[in-house]
Amino acid sequence: MRTARLRTVHPALWAGWAALAAGAVLCVIGWYGVSGERYAERQLPYLVSCTIPGAALIVAAAVLLTHGRNALAAARVEELYGLLVAAEAADVEESARAAAAPVAVSGDLLMVPGGTLWHRADCPLVSGKPEAVPVDAKLVANGELSPCPICEPAEADD
Fold it and tell me: Is residue 105 a contact partner of residue 43, using CB atoms and an 8 Å limit?
């Protein structure tokens, strides 16, 4: 899922690479021209016509490449943000549906030996655990066991 902005960033990157190549070529030509001349008066035209513009193109290339990379990174961040917002909206809808359905509705009550809570039989904390046993009414009456805050088995007594 590429956006149009990602495609518009590429010209800045291409222009940056082209400016870098042209600047490097001009600097090499200037260096070659300067190296072949013995007197400073004859070296000056090569410096002015090739080396200085070549260096300026290299600086411009650095600016273009940095801008292109930053724009590319910003476009990717925007794309990821859009995906995050879309996923967040789906999670909100799913959690709204899950909140409407009760976690557990069974009338059978279970406890785990050594535990401090009692649960409905289909509570996610005890379902599928072979060590879960039916609740001892004496432990509930003595207050040694508390109702599970997930499945809320106290509502079963109401």
Answer: no
Q: Over the range 39-52, which residues count as b (16 or more CB within 10 Å of their CB) and which as e?
A: eeeebeebeeebbe
The DSSP H or E segment spanning 134 is: strand 133-134
Nearest to 14 by CA among 72, 73, 68: 68
Answer for the pair 123, 148: CB distance below 8 angstroms, yes or no: yes
Residue (of 132, 144, 142, 140) closest to 153 by Cα position: 140
Task: Report pLDDT digits (tens) over 59-91.
Answer: 999 998 888 888 778 878 888 888 888 877 766
Q: What percentage of the chain has pLDDT greater than the value 70?
A: 80
**19 token code pair:** 């400016």
pLDDT of residue 7: 57
